[in-house]
Amino acid sequence: MILPPARLDRFARHIVLPEIGGAGQVALALANVALIGLGGIGSPVLQYLAGAGIGSFTLIDDDVVEVSNLQRQTIFAEADVGRSKAEAAADWVSRFDGSLEARVVPVRVGGDNAARVIEGASLVIDGCDNFATRLAVSDACVAAGIPLVSAAVGRFQGQVAAFAGHRPGEACYRCFVGDAFDTEDCDSCADDGMLGAMAGWVGTFAALAAVRVVLAGVTALGDPQFGKLHVLDGLAPSLRTMRIAKDSKCRSCSG
Hints:
Elements: H1 5-10, H2 12-15, H3 21-30, E1 32-36, H4 42-52, E2 56-60, H5 85-96, E3 101-105, H6 114-117, E4 123-126, H7 131-144, E5 148-154, E6 157-163, H8 173-177, H9 189-192, H10 196-214, E7 228-233, E8 238-243
Parallel strand pairs: 1-2, 1-4, 2-3, 4-5
Antiparallel strand pairs: 5-6, 6-7, 7-8
Helix pairs in contact: 4-10
């Protein structure tokens, strides 16, 4: 693939980075990212990955835009209230860069459809708000051999990790949280509160993790850091990293 002159100009600040270069920019253009959840995390993820030149997106969310979302979900405006988040996000992509593709999937993801909605993706990013969906997505990624970036945020703390449970010796998301969380129950930001800038920090950090995964084996930036959990603390502020061990009894990746 050869990038046309207009694209070379648009991504010049990437291309001059030795850690990305022309080969890295082409890899980004060829990537298909499935983004699950277009809320406080998904919004900045989409903005920065579209800005990075990811060629195509699958935008997955069954929710509609509400006024309370606007405090942290930065791709939406007042005019979007009541609209499908997935459709409004696709419109944002088309306005931002007409060369990018965005497929709208306005469904709730679960064990019955996770494999179908991520089909064809080179990377899945999960920023949803419940464990049942996260585990269904992780299981589908392991089965399909697709790497996963998982990101979560609450109040003043966030977590971001990349997983490749389909690879020997690598943990999956289920290795991290176990089987006890196969449930729809979850804490709600409506109950606990959410600092908008904290969601932005987690989302941009997840976008950086996604770029690393896409560029793995292509450029010097491509250390995907699979199995490393990054914990972001907005009160301190601070960042710490821990290693997630593969569970030899995990029913998803060690079966």
